[in-house]
Prior knowledge:
Blueprint (H helix, E strand, L loop, with lengths): L1 H8 L5 E4 L17 H27 L5 E5 L15 H22 L4 E6 L16 H14 L8 E3 L8
Helix pairs in contact: 1-2, 2-3
Amino acid sequence: SCAKSVAATTDRLDALLNVAGIQTPPYDQPLEELDFKKMRDQFETNVLGPLRVTRALLPLLRKGKNPRVVNWSSGVGSIALTDNPNFYAYGASKAALNKVTRTLSFALRKDGITVVALDPGWVRTDLGGPNAPLSPEESAVPTVATLGKLDLSWTGKYIYNDGKELPW
C-alpha cells in the first residue's frame, strides 16, 4: 500500500531510506536466556522489512535521478568490530542487513541504483537510550551531508554517518 501511495504522488523515487529497526528487551541476553521468538521478530523487521520495501518501490527507484537505497544499519552489525558476547539478536539482524545491502548493491548496480548500509552512530533515541553519546541532531547533520554525496561510486559500502567506510 505504501508503494501505491507513493506512486500516486510521483512517477519516480530518488532516495529510499530504510530506517525501521527494532530491538526487543532484554537487549543483552546471554545464550542461555536467548528468546528466539524475539530474535525472529527483529529479523522480520530489521532484515526482511527493508527487502520488502525496496522490492515494492523498485519500479519507482528505476526511474529516479541518482536513485539511492540507504539501509540504516548499526555499529553492532559489524562482524569485525564485535566485542560483546551477548548482543545476539540485534547485532545479528544488522549484520544480516549489511549482507542484504551488499547483495542488493550488485543486483541493482545495473539499474544505476546506489545501495549502502549506513550507521547513524549511537543516538539518544528510544532505541539508543539516554546514555548514547550523540543527540539526534549530531547524527542527522553529517548523515544528511553524506546522503547528498551518494552516487554509484559508493554502492555496496558500509559507512558511518560522516561517510567513512566501516569494516564489515
